[in-house]
Amino acid sequence: MVGVKSHYSFFNELSKEVIVIEEQRKKIKNLIESSLISSETSQHSQPIE
To answer: For 18, how many CA atoms within 13 A lie in the half-sphere containing its CB?
Structure first.
């Protein structure tokens, strides 16, 4: 029984880690997209010296 319980908690922790990684990946993707958009708009609105 102890082996099964430790396996369960291991997979439980693993799934939590995966969720955290997915959330971070989404945040990074959003940051990259927003920075690309802001750099594009700033280039269009301001002349490059």
So the answer is: 6
pTM above 0.70, yes or no: no
The HSE-up count of residue 22 (CA atoms within 13 Å, CB side) is 6
37-to-31, 40, 41, 44 alpha-carbon distances in Å? 10, 5, 6, 11
Which parts of the chain sit beneath pLDDT 50? none
DSSP 8-state secondary structure symbol assigned to residue 27: H
Nearest to 11 by CA among 41, 3, 28: 3
